[in-house]
């Protein structure tokens, strides 16, 4: 897997080096380009491209080098989502480094631009990474019918992500006591599961010509819930402070202290149940092993 | 043209009525859906779909009904750009009505959501309209090769738009005296010309199988500059107040009062020159007539 991850990193670095858009930007706005580059190349797990490439191999198609543009597209779309999330959450830090809006706030403070904020620059950067994701997808070595279908799968996952994000805002308006863990699971499945798990697996099946008909939407749903439940366990105290509607807090209904043993037991049980459900649907040992690692955050 | 515009409006209304995403949202977040619907259906000129449909006819292909999803995609992408622009410009009003961030600020004030702002809701809505644009594009009655090429043209225009927006932020950091009118023309051509003029015309040629090889990039560049110069004339006083780097203000170099007759004469001359250049490249009388109307803001 280390070799595959190195391939993915190389693809990412090469994209930033060679795409004409970045060449223009490096000339026209060197400090802005540096900030974007540092944000994108901050160490990440590259979960989505890893899943895509591993699934391709499990389905009998070698993804390197022909399908690396698809792997890149998945990482670009993830970067786009993180950057827009950082604007919404007003986060200053991610992956141990300043977020893009934060970096750009610093730059605009040095050389003020009438009314332009770091988050404005980050907003446009997110839009453009999303565009580059679609563009990269079209560069897969595949038929036009496959490429068209890939774009369609991408849009479907992106609609789920947006719906999950809007449901999350709605949940923020709803008193904790009126929310069920089912409401939160729906948000996790839509906002995270669809583009993190379902999409890479569906794309692998598409480009590998795999026709076994595995229910990747169901895998993605359970895996997405399990993935977020893992985060809930780690961040319970911060989430409570920020008023976030997480599964853990809804489950505890604020009756228990965040991080109490009863609450953590419930989250852990639900998490294991969803891991089990996701894995039961996957028949490749390599893919199962990777999913297990991703879902236990040991990838 | 009134009939064509009615077709476009009907397509837009039908999309909002029938797409499963909007059906979900209408149930899950009724007030949010109403705000989006009112924003999208506020009276607009529908310049991009009109240009696309008129160009199709001029090139011998009837766009109604087979290519209406392409017309819709162009209006969706325009709505996405306007909404993200309204966030960046912190605009409260557009088309004589409150902008989406403003509307949502009102809704969140009624029923507060921990830390969620109207601009957060609008940001996700913009992303989702962009996704719906790609999805609609794929529904054109065309071959997979044409659809793939259409997506590619879309991404190219979107990259130009993003580059123009980033150049505009950079210009906001640059003292007015250090900018040339050429710098501003580049921003206008990239940010407005590419997706407003070049893209609809290229898509019309693609789906009509037109092979005359008109230089639509050159048409779009001149038309985009002319289109923005028209706005400069109307908004000179507001632009100065907001510190916007417009052609008019760069040309006058702050030596003249905004709206002075010398400044307006220079803008008018440059505008007419660009209209002339754009029209010289177009050989269809119907399309020329529409472009003239669009560029004189009488459409």
**Sheet/helix structural class of chain A:** mainly alpha
- Quaternary form: homodimer
Mean pLDDT of chain A: 92
Compute the number of strand runs of chain A: 2
Helix content of chain A: over 70%
Question: Major sheet of chain A: order of its strands?
Answer: 1-2
Biggest sheet descriptor of chain A: 2 strands, antiparallel
Name the largest protein-protein interface in this structure: A-B, 55 and 55 residues
Q: Quickly count the helices of chain A.
A: 13
First-last Cα distance of chain A: 10 Å
Order of helices and strands of chain A: HHHHHEEHHHHHHHH
User: What general outline of chain A do the C-alpha atoms trace?
Assistant: globular
Uncertain runs of chain A are: none
Strand content of chain A: under 5%
What's the Cα radius of gyration of chain A? Answer: 20 Å
Topology:
The structure is a homodimer of 299-residue chains.
Chain A: H1 2-18, H2 20-28, H3 30-41, H4 47-58, H5 68-89, E1 93-94, E2 97-98, H6 100-110, H7 118-137, H8 144-172, H9 181-208, H10 216-242, H11 247-252, H12 261-280, H13 285-295
Antiparallel strand pairs in A: 1-2
Helix pairs in contact in A: 1-5, 2-3, 3-6, 4-5, 4-9, 4-13, 5-7, 5-9, 6-7, 8-9, 9-10, 10-12
């Amino acid at each position: 897997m280390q070799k595959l991850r190195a391939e993915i990193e190389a693809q990412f670095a090469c994209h930033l080096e060679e795409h004409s858009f970045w060449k223009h930007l490096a000339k026209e706005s060197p400090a802005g380009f540096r900030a974007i580059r540092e944000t994108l190349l901050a160490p990440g797990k590259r979960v989505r491209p890893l899943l895509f490439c591993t699934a391709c191999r499990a389905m009998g198609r070698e993804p390197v080098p022909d399908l690396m543009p698809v792997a890149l597209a998945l990482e670009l779309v993830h970067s786009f989502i993180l950057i827009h999330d950082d604007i919404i959450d007003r986060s200053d830090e991610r992956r141990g480094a300043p977020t893009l809006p934060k970096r750009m706030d610093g730059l605009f403070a040095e050389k003020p631009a009438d009314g332009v904020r770091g988050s404005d620059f980050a907003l446009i950067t997110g839009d453009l990474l999303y565009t580059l994701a679609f563009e990269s997808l079209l560069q897969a070595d595949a038929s036009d019918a496959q490429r068209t279908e890939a774009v369609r799968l991408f849009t479907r996952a992106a609609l789920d992500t947006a719906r999950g994000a809007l449901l999350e805002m709605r949940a923020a308006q709803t008193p904790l006591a009126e929310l069920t863990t089912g409401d939160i699971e729906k948000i996790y499945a839509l906002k995270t599961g669809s583009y993190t798990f379902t999409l890479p697996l569906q794309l692998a099946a598409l480009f590998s010509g795999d026709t076994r008909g595995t229910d990747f939407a169901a895998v993605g749903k359970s895996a997405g819930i399990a993935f977020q439940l893992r985060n809930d366990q780690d961040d319970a105290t911060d989430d409570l402070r920020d008023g976030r509607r997480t599964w853990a807090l809804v489950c505890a209904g604020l009756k228990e202290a965040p991080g109490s043993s009863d609450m953590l037991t419930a989250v852990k049980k639900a998490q294991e149940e969803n891991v089990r459900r996701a894995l039961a649907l996957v028949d490749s040992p390599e893919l199962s092993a990777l999913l297990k690692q991703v879902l236990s955050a040991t990838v």
